[in-house]
Amino acid sequence: MTVRTRIAPSPTGDPHVGTAYIALFNLCFARQHGGQFILRIEDTDRVRSTAESEQMILDSLRWLGIEWDEGPDVGGPHGPYRQSERGEIYAQYAHQLIDAGYAFKCYRTTEELNALREARKIAGMQLALKPADLALNADEKSRREQEGWPYVVRMQVPTDGVCVVQDMLRGRIEVEWAQVDAQILLKSDGMPTYHLANVVDDHLMGITHVLRGEEWINSAPKHQLLYEYFGWEMPTLCHMPLLRNPDKSKLSKRKNPTSINYYRRMGFLPEAVTNYLGRMGWSMPDEREKFSLDEMMAAFDVQRVSLGGPVFDLEKLTWLNGLYIREDLDDEAFLQALRDWAFNEAYVRQILPQVRPRVETLSQVAPLAGHFFSGLPAINETAFDSVKLEKEALVKLLQFLTWRFEAVPAWHKEALLEEVKALAEYFDLKMKAFLAPVFIAITGSATSTSVMDAMVILGSDMTRARLRHAIEVLGGVSKKQAKRFEKEFQEL
Ligand code: GLU
């Protein structure tokens, strides 16, 4: 048997370090067994998926040195590798399940489903909805069918007993069937859900081992049952530990930069980031901290993955990156790294229009445009002295803007302006007054290039990291404040 693994990212945002981490382990597992590694795009969520996000995922994985044998850009014998292009395949398999009695059409409306859930909640029952709960009487069912009501396709699930799933690292995992919903397989628009598409594709693409994040453990019983219904052999499952913040909470962009774009923009070397991701829950047999991707692939043993939540620690990564810069880069390579990073024509060209109208000598360029070539600005609280706002209001402004920016799907000037305008209105400030503290947070100074353009050029993650940094410099947000802010923000 040829080992085949895959990564199956959903292109719904920035390229996440967690995606790269899972990709790396799948790649190493495949290579270790002389097998293949596949990249599949799970873009069945048509509202949230974007082509830009897909491109960023491919680019950042490549930047890290992670290469795939088959995928949407390189092709392969099991394509298409984008789920949005495989719609007919899923519909056909969903109907096969209906014909065999393993799935059924469900005509329940959203209101009815909410009412059913509410009633169960009040009765203190499990919330999972089973086929029997969803059944309509025969007359009503045929009426809705004849009138052409929208329907979803759901899978049959047992009502009681325990489902046992085997995991390569965790051994036996038990989940009570009572907790498992009659999962939707096809939505009313005919698109498959993650569960159906994932199982069908893993099977058709010959995937033998699925290494994925532990957040998918609860899906495993449904997947196992689908493999049984289809009569297919299930790939071996391996649920990897989730990356964590230093406070052990799940790694989230609210606390840490999670986008690979950020690490790239911050001037980390891809070799160091990949090496660091390889240290997440895994170690070399000789425990050394610095190793290349080739060395990791050669020494890889999945059984060395430890399940205690690996901490993604920026300080540690920075330290490791320093080792790479000092030990691995000769002058030539260092120069090249600088070029790849920001001292290249494409990037400098973006800065030119910002700088030209504002300088009289070339020597003014570096002091003026330094923020385009740096990480977090060296500021302290006094940097905000000129801002005429109470400290609490100032911190709130920066915090609200950070949160609004988290949700911006496409990072371009109009979108950012919209957020800024909305918040300026909310804080009852003129644009200029609203932007004054933002200006300092982003450029590190009270006079510089346009802050709106700077944010566009710096990108979402670096912008948010600088806003967060400014909040920290101003003393941070206490737990109590955070609660209050959240509440107010939600009502916005
Ligand atoms: N599309 C899922 C994700 O975004 C894939 C999960 C899996 O590997 O099964 O993580």
TrEMBL record:
PROSITE patterns per the UniProt record, alphabetical: AA_TRNA_LIGASE_I (PS00178)
Motif 'KMSKS' region location, chain numbering: 250-254
Annotated motif 'HIGH' region, positions: 9-19
Bilayer-spanning residue ranges: 434-458
Pfam families: Anticodon_2 (PF19269), tRNA-synt_1c (PF00749)
Enzyme Commission (EC) number: 6.1.1.17
Keyword match Cell inner membrane: no
Reactions mediated catalytically: tRNA(Glu) + L-glutamate + ATP = L-glutamyl-tRNA(Glu) + AMP + diphosphate
GO function term, MF aspect, one: glutamate-tRNA ligase activity
Location of the protein in the cell: Cytoplasm
Database matches in SUPFAM superfamilies: An anticodon-binding domain of class I aminoacyl-tRNA synthetases (SSF48163), Nucleotidylyl transferase (SSF52374)
Keywords carried by this UniProt record: Aminoacyl-tRNA synthetase, ATP-binding, Cytoplasm, Ligase, Membrane, Nucleotide-binding, Protein biosynthesis, Transmembrane, Transmembrane helix
Top-level division of the source organism's lineage: Bacteria
Similarity comment: Belongs to the class-I aminoacyl-tRNA synthetase family. Glutamate--tRNA ligase type 1 subfamily.
Subunit structure: Monomer.
Protein name as annotated: Glutamate--tRNA ligase
Gene that encodes the chain: gltX
